[in-house]
Amino acid sequence: MLCPRVVAYRDVTREVASAMSKLASTLAGVLAEALLGHKNAPGVERERFPEGCDETTCFLRLNRYPPCPLLPDTFGLVPHTDSDFLTVLCQDHVGGLQLMKDSRWVAVKPIPGALIVNIGDLFQAWSNNRYKSVEHKVMTNATTERYSVAYFLCPSYDSPIGTCREPSPYMPFTFGEYRRKVQEDVKRTGKKVGLPSFLV
């Protein structure tokens, strides 16, 4: 029998994941429609875009970054882009999230009650680079731990990513092929290469 606190924690986590899932799917549909110019764009149904994404393929990640008083400028999370379609992030008041803008790192100031939405690599590929996957990192705080909750809108591994319009600058690939290539690159070079590996 589970402890009541564990049950309550599980129920809250499921509720948060469900709400973030609905938001991420709705935003992805709206962004796809905007890219194609009108609400009933051929090939895009808001309720089904992106295809292959559901509660079995998407996931919620709870992050804790302990304080790091001994080493200033320590990464809580190294610079990277997300490999999904969209990421919905809720961060606490501590801060530490930075994104790359105009070739420099910019701190993302926490705003109470606000969510952060990042475009991921799959949306960049599907949009033929009209939407850009944002490079970001997390820096630790010297005195205060940081918490965040991230929801990743991901398709199944066998889902073809496709494109909003032809021709595409990318060769056809599935999400599974993309993930495998990212993992191979990290093992081989120590960093993610990402979409450039799939350019035609």
UniProtKB/TrEMBL annotation:
Keyword terms, alphabetized: Iron, Metal-binding, Oxidoreductase
Record carries keyword Amino-acid biosynthesis: no
GO MF term set: metal ion binding; oxidoreductase activity
Domain Fe2OG dioxygenase: 54-155
Top-level taxon: Eukaryota
Family indicated by similarity: Belongs to the iron/ascorbate-dependent oxidoreductase family.
InterPro entries, per database record: IPNS-like_FE2OG_OXY, IPNS-like_sf, Iron_ascorbate_oxido_reductase, Oxoglu/Fe-dep_dioxygenase_dom
Transmembrane parts of this sequence: none
Name of this chain's protein: Fe2OG dioxygenase domain-containing protein
Species of the source: Eleusine coracana subsp. coracana
